[in-house]
Amino acid sequence: MNSHVKITSHESADLSRRSFLVGSAATGLVLGYAALPGVNQAFAAAGNFDPSVWYSIAPDGIVTVTSGKADMGQHIASTMAQIISEELGVNWKDVRVQLASNDPKFNDPMLGAQVTGGSWSTMMNFDAMSRAGAAGRIAMTEAVAAIWGVPADQLIVRDSTITDPKSKKSMTFADVVKSGKITKTFTADDLKALKLKTPDQYTMIGVSVPQLDIPGKTNGTIKYGIDVMLPGMVYGKVVTPPVRYGATVKSVDDSAAKKVPGFIKAVTLDDKTATTTGWVVAVASTYPAAMKAADALKITYDNGPNAKLSSESILAEAKRLQSLDDSGFFFVKDGDTAAALGTAAKVLEAEYTTSINIHAPLEPMTATAEQKGDIWHVYTGNQFATRSGSIAAGAAEVDPKFVVMHQQWLGGGFGRRLEGDMLVPAVQASKAVGKPVKIIYARQNDMTMDFTRPLTYQKVKAGLDGDGKLIAMNHDVVAAWPTKRWGIPAFLSPSVDKKGALDAFTVNGADFFYSVPNHNVRAILNEMAQTATPSGQLRSVAPGWTFWAVESMIDELAHAAGKDPVQFRIALLDGKGANNGGAQRLRNTLLAAVGLSGYGTKPLPKGEGMGVACVSSQERATASWTACVAHVAVAPSGEVKVKKLTLATDVGTQVHPDNVRAQAMGAALWGVSLALYEKATLKDGGLEQTNFDTYTPLRMSQTPDLEVHVIANGEHATGVGEPAVTVIAPALGNAIFNACGARVRSLPISAEAVKAGMKA
């Protein structure tokens, strides 16, 4: 049985502290959560829920759903609308979506903040959105029942119409709203007691309805952050220092910039939020002019304390920290690993590393800021409006209540837009010139100033008994801690021995569902990496590196025990103790992927191999069960060709089948990209890769055959945007070993490393 830290940000909000209001308004029917008097609305307590209005029904019958989730191409706004629509009974053609502002009333019901990430959105909002839809339906049917003098339970709601089967009377949603007869309040207990549909009653959930954002994206009516235009707006181009973090500006010579037509001013940022250091903004009437002026500025820097650091020095520091017995905090501490390893018949020890990785979304970071009276209006696409609004406020040196964030559609996010750095130059440049300023990062700025996935170092030591059974594992994970950098205590977790707080988002996945009686996981902060490479959350977060180590080591142990890797895993997924339920679902997913792939059914040509991995990403409390069988061909040069990936993923209830498959496929391809191609390096304190010529994600020509099977079993809906990322690298590494005998333990897997492994 495993003891695990509790991720406090996942705790359910207290329904007893809010009520659900349904009432007629001048503009129609408005439905949402509203705060009771005296409720603390501060974000400091992540478990609190700040009330929100999730949708409205206009007198013309149009239902407009407000999405508190950032839509970055994953169609989450449509998903929220689809969940509401299932219980509401609205015709899909009558539904529209819009994006929420940073008003705290739009905070996530579970997280108490407005944040999009972790593959949490559907999972954490399915129940709340369902109850919102059901409450609206009930309110309208009771109003109609009163008008007609019939029992409410006699009425049928379908396709935006309420019908009485006996009298054949009907009223559309528009008619009901215009009647002005709807007034109902649901207490928290009323909400809890609402009887929701069972999966066999669904007519919308599980249907691939048209995504509501696609027409606007194809006809150009949907606007991204880069599209914002304001009257009197000017442009800013950031000039960033040669080191990632810690530089200060000593002097700025703008004499050459003044010769550029349209140049207005060079603004040196004074960022009290410490999000940026050493930045200057060239402001001009047009973006081309701002670019020319930025190039003309002569800036001298003090490059600061990180000027000599490199990827190698960060890795060396990670190894030093891991070697110290008192480093870090325990994430898992079960049994006595020292004693078990001391009596083990066979002990394996291995080091696993991952490189720095860059987000590089298609739309680079962009933001526009304007002050009107006391209010700062900022326009950007952002995944963490709660935090980013505070960063904008810090840059402007005002209270966060004076910042209104106008959420735009996101041209890619992947965790990059959890950050608010783009708001700092926009706000401070606007303040300096007294005009609205739009900031657009050049690709070079976007890459070299990225909040990267951190370089990680993991050491795993495991022991087998005489029967080849896994009896002990020590797993140390050394990395920068992105969530700690955010400064939100509620997002940190107490260590299991209560000796301190750790960043669980750097070790999730290491608390796997295998039954291992003696199991330690230690989370160790690399302070050098924390300051030199301020890291963020990249799609899949910790499971992207922890499962690389876990699933590679499980394979190594299986081979050391002389057992088939699939059967070795199945034996460990026995569901004992805290692993009950989850282990069975993971086992079933593994068996599905193996069976569908043809794994082990026939000999493969020389140089080819198939490898398996199975994961419970993202976290134990928010797992989607995902397994992969990878089929690779390895050339004598060490070059790896991925021939096919077969994935099975258990998502419980799938809202939109086509979107679930698309998300899993995109995640799997990103996993291939991280496993084989993507690598950033730090030299002299700066990231060396500045564009796609040196940072090389997966190209279309390298895309393998991909087969995705979704297990939809009616269980609670889980997330799908990230889990498949995490299963790919270990499946590929295990397949490479089976193809040529090379065991590679560093990501990305290079041809040189594979060739060297073949010779070893």
What structural category characterises the helix and strand content?
Answer: alpha+beta
Strand tally: 32
Taken together, the total number of domains comes to: 3
What percentage of amino acids are in beta strands?
15-25%
- Overall residue-averaged pLDDT value: 92
CATH superfamily of the largest domain: Aldehyde oxidase/xanthine dehydrogenase, molybdopterin binding domain
Shape: globular
Distance between the termini: 38 Å
Radius of gyration from CA coordinates: 27 Å
CATH architecture of the largest domain: 2-Layer Sandwich
Low-confidence stretches: 1-27, 29-52
Question: Which fold name is given in CATH as the topology of the largest domain?
Answer: Aldehyde Oxidoreductase, domain 4
Number of helices: 19
Helix content: 25-40%
Largest sheet: 7 strands, mixed
Instruction: Trace the largest sheet across and list its strands.
Output: 12-13-10-20-17-18-19
Q: Output the CATH class name of the largest domain.
A: Alpha Beta
